[in-house]
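Thread: Newbie trying to understand structure tokens

Hi all, I'm a second-year student working on a class project, and my supervisor (Dr. K.) asked me to get a predicted structure for one chain before our next meeting. I've only ever worked with sequences, so writing a 3D structure as a token string is new to me. If someone could post the tokens and maybe explain what I'm looking at, I'd be very grateful. Here's the chain:
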Amino acid sequence: MILLNGASSSGKSSLARSLQQALDTPFLHVSSDQFVEAGMLPPRREPDGPFAWWTQVRPRFFAGFHRCLPALADAGNDLIVEHIIEFPAWRDDLARLLGHLDVFLVGVHCDLDELDRRERARGDRRIGEGRGHVEHDRIHTFGPYDLDIDTTSGVTPALTTTVLDAWRHRTAPRALR
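---
Reply by user tm_fold:
Sure, no problem. This is what the structure looks like when written as tokens:
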């Protein structure tokens, strides 16, 4: 499993698609955004009660997302997973759930001004969301990575090759363990 962790708009999806194209074997591309885009979430989000997004729905959604990853891998699928590991507890949860798997954890970094520019260009993200993941949530501080990359200049063929070369030459122990 190749697990990409980075802020919103950092290039994780572009990198995942590029990796899929470059790999010699089929890898499934899995992200929580795909579940959201499929209409999985209830349309109602309220501050309190059973539809309370932050305290009720969101924690269960991500707990389920984390649990689907070992299920997919244990069924024999190779995965490229993109995620925003927002809390140390999420990283701990993933380490526990994926501990029996070969997980190559990639830190996807991007200049903050470039994150802001991409969010404005996309039009489907809250401006400052990616910056908040880095500055407020501190997503890159919860532990080491097997590889750190910078996507500020985009996802180039050379960057894809760098990730694949590092993945192909990985050694134990892995960063997520």
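A couple of things are worth pointing out once you decode it. The chain is about 45% helix and 15% strand. Residues 2-168 form a domain with the Rossmann fold fold (CATH 3.40.50.300). Feel free to ask follow-ups in this thread.
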